[in-house]
Amino acid sequence: MKTKLIGAALACAGLLTACGGSDSGAADGPVTVTVMTWESTQTNAVIKKALAEFKEPNITVELLDTPSGQYGDKLSSLTQAKKLPDLFWCGNDTEQQYTQQGLLVDWSPKLSGEFGADKFVASAIKNWTTADGQLGGLPSLMNTYGVWYNADAFTAAGVPIPKSGWTWDEMYAAAQKLTGKGGAKYGLVADQLTGPDGPFTMSMYAVSAGGAPFTDDVNHPTKAEADAKYTEGVQKLVDAVKNGSVAPPGYDASNAQSLFAAGKVPMMFGGQWLAAGFQVDKPKVKYGFAPFPQVTTPATLYDSVGICTPQYTKNQDATFKVLEYINTKVWDAVLPESPVAPPAYTPAQAKYFGALAEQPTVVDTVKADLAMEKTVGVRFTTQWAQQVGDLTTADYQPILAGKKPVTDLPAYIEKINGLIKSGG
Amino acid sequence: MNRWRLPFQRENGGRSRNTLSRGAGSDTLAAYLFIAPAIIGFTVFVGYPLIRSFYLALTKYNGLTDPVFVGLGNFRRLFTTDPAFWPALRATGYLVVLYVPLSLILGLALAMFCNQRFRGVRIVRTLSYLPVVLPAVATITLWKFILNPQVGLLNTILERLGLPTSLWLQSPTMAMPSVVLMMLWGVGGTMIIFLAALQAVPTELYEAAKVDGAGPWSAFLRITIPTISPIILLQVILQTTAALQTFNQPKILTNGGPGFSTNVLMLSIYNNGFPNLGRVPQLGYASAQVWVLFIVIIAVIALAAKFTSLWTYSDNTPD
């Protein structure tokens, strides 16, 4: 009886060992590299097909079935359980935070030759490098931003179509003329300006006017500031919200894309990824994508996403081979089907731009954004970034909504600086 | 074979004191074994998390690294520097004040209506209760579309009727009433309990009152309300507890906005513990919020029970 019990216990232990964790095999034997993405089922199917073409002795790639929704929750749970897959999609902020906690593999020593750091978009590598020179993942896709516009609405209202070099004043004037026309409640929906990341987006105005950005560095900030140019930009936005031409803070932008496609939103801030949706579900209106307006010199937002590897991955060499394959080959197969974003690995960008031949304004704007000299980060990537979001809701958004005076801006900045100093 | 005995089973008729004692001992053991699953379940799923969450409330813990003990630091931040905490408490209180009385009044009114005898009353009861059994997320999402200020059904109807429209969920002043409006969609749950209570009121009381010349309003105030008062107390406690823990509606409809206007405490806890992708979880801080909510719930329920017991009818007369 006792022997049977011990046998059963050993069998159970064996089963548990087999089921638990992402055991990727012995270091010199067959290896399975697991991959987890936040992509849709359709995009995952294309990625899976492309990964099947990966031919390397002893290395099998397994794309984990994960729901695209609530990816953050899943990532958080897997991190706490120390069960992260070998390669997982991550944002710049996650990469920075996890690397600082010593959770990710530093890939910087591995980058060389045809897969060297110089083959990536320079700003991406710069922003993915931590203060101590580590690269806790590789940027994979770039996010560029601009202004989506309904060309039909602009023509009907007799307003010039937005184009490279247009100004903030022209944008607000256009918004005012478009407000209330053709069922449009607001002339401009700009969640990036009025939402939780609004203070960072406003940096574009200040930088373009020769002023200082909201913060000196979103990854390793030493200060936040609102100089005269920044304050001027905020005042103009406040005026536009007040006259009803720009959607106020609190506007639910979750369905702005569909309203834009239906001709109910004539102009909106947004990322280039919307082009992939418009490629399939064509909007009813003639539309275009223009760079952000400027004051004197062009400036834009910087953002990128990438792929990270947990420190406890057993087969780092095999994992890096798969990572290299994804960056150099997989996008070639995925992006023609779903052109969501330009790859950070520049030799792979041709297929992306080729897929967008039907949307020339998107190609032009994305190329201009990627080449732009003045860029500002979209948000803090620090551990205490959540607290900044709360301060923005409490103090910055009421300024935009006209509930607090613009003169309260320094008090808000002082609180942010307090957070920067205390480290949350 | 029959090792465990029920308490009333005694060998030899239970005459021997020793036998009784041995039997009682094994009965106690059997009883503990029977309730063991419940005790284990409570310990694992309630007791341990409660103790663990209290410990975490005293730490800075992000789920990535080991917790660091900070004493009352999280509570200090909650009450002094966090710009979201007091608005969250205010939003929670506002929701309770709006929702609880309205749900009780509407639930009771609907129950009284459904307690009458007329053709089709069963269909009316079923339709009233139907929203309770529908999937919550689906109905809340539907309401989100209905309340959309630009293309929503509600504003479209109001416009057609020439009535004033509203921004509903996108207005700082109307967002919470809109959330409460949606919550009242499920008032059938309150109605069904009141309906059961109303049907338990002896009809002879109404007949006697009628003979004495009491009108419907007088009968309602002097018979119905006192008789169902224990159920009203139960409903006050149930609805208040539910309102204090509201999560689904603000999460799906507004995610706490505009500003902090619908950022109720449960949502604030969730957003701190499970933030958006790219933000680091503040599990220690969220645990501190959980304890504040826990204490608020206990205090509110105790107060509700204390004050409502003053007017709650109970039959203490000896038989």
TrEMBL record, chain A:
Transmembrane segments: none
Keywords: Signal
InterPro entries per UniProt: Bact_solute-bd_prot1 (IPR050490), SBP (IPR006059)
Pfam family, one: SBP_bac_1
Signal peptide start-end: 1-20
Keyword RNA-binding found: no
Top-level division of the source organism's lineage: Bacteria
Record has Electron transport as a keyword: no
CDD domains noted in UniProt: PBP2_TMBP_like
Entry protein name: ABC-type glycerol-3-phosphate transport system substrate-binding protein
Taxonomic classification: Bacteria, Bacillati, Actinomycetota, Actinomycetes, Propionibacteriales
